[in-house]
Amino acid sequence: MITAIQILVQEHRVIESMLLCLERLAEQAERDGKLDNERSGTIIDFLREFADACHHGKEEDVLFKFSDTRTVGHGPVEVLRDEHTEGRGYVSVMAKNRLKAVSGNPGAIRSFCESARDLTNMLRRHIQREDEVVFPMIEEQCQSSDADQLWQEFVTVEKIAGGDRHKKFVESARSCCRHFNVPFHEDHITQLIVNFG
Ligand SMILES: [Fe+2]
Ligand SMILES: [Fe+2]
Predict the structure, then answer these.
(1) From CA 184, how far away is CA 19, in angstroms rounded?
(2) How far is the CA of 126 from the centre of ligand 1 (A)?
(3) Average pLDDT per run of 10 along the chain, which is 197 residues long?
(4) Ligand number, closest to the Cα atom of 64
(5) What's the CATH number of domain 4-196, 1.20.120.520, 2.140.10.10, 1.10.10.10, 1.10.510.10?
(6) How far is CA 30 from the centre of its chain?
(7) Centre of ligand 2 from the C-alpha of residue 1, in Å
(8) What is the residue extent of each domain of the chain?
(9) How many helices (H) and strands (E) does the chain have?
């Protein structure tokens, strides 16, 4: 059976595919002198609702809290928490500039694209560190009863959120990837939908 940490790793793969779409969106905006209205709205919604509320939510409210109980002083998750905050800043700059960039304002396009690139670069490094360093370290601290507890807490978080946000945001990532010709790996998401809807 898949673990709570493996669910987060699968969510990373969906987020990475949307970061590629965001890169394409920014390149296109710079080339055309205007931002795609529909796709920029879809990607910002995804970043706020899936990457932040759903994914960072489970990390901060469940996994990092568990790690705090096993680590003395400032653990490695402190840096990850700070990067989540940094990411929220980039997304709010993008959201603030979005409509002006859609209407072709050069300064707004520049700000949107700069924040999109800063977010993409930071989140890629962040995800790699979670996958390769921090999650394996937390996994080592997990007894099987802890793993069960983390799983149950994830189930509760998703139930409170309505029980269908994976289905919704995986579909919006799949459709964005199709639009921007970005690979979308179906095999990375099977357990997300099966377990969390
Ligand atoms: Fe994170
Ligand atoms: Fe993560």
Answers:
(1) 12
(2) 6
(3) 91 96 98 98 97 96 92 80 98 98 98 98 98 94 92 92 89 96 83 69
(4) 1
(5) 1.20.120.520
(6) 24
(7) 20
(8) 4-196
(9) 10, 0
How far does the centroid of ligand 1 lie from the alpha carbon of residue 84, in Å? 6
Closest ligand to residue 10's CA: 2
Element (H, E) at 20: helix 4-32
Cα(59) to ligand 2 centroid in Å equals 7
Neighbours of 134 (CB within 10 A): 21
Cα–Cα distance for residue pair 21/93, rounded to 1 Å: 18
Angle subtended at Cα 102 by Cα 99 and Cα 106, rounded to the nearest 5 degrees: 100
Centre of ligand 2 to C-alpha 177, Å, is 20
Rounded Cα gap, residues 22 and 120, in angstroms: 8
Residues whose beta carbons lie less than 5 angstroms from ion ligand 1: 59, 80
Q: How many residues does the chain have?
A: 197
192 contact partners, CB below 8 Å, separation of at least 6: 7, 10, 11, 14, 166, 170
pTM exceeds 0.90 for this model: yes
Q: For residue 36, report the distance from its CA to the centre of ligand 1, in Å.
A: 28
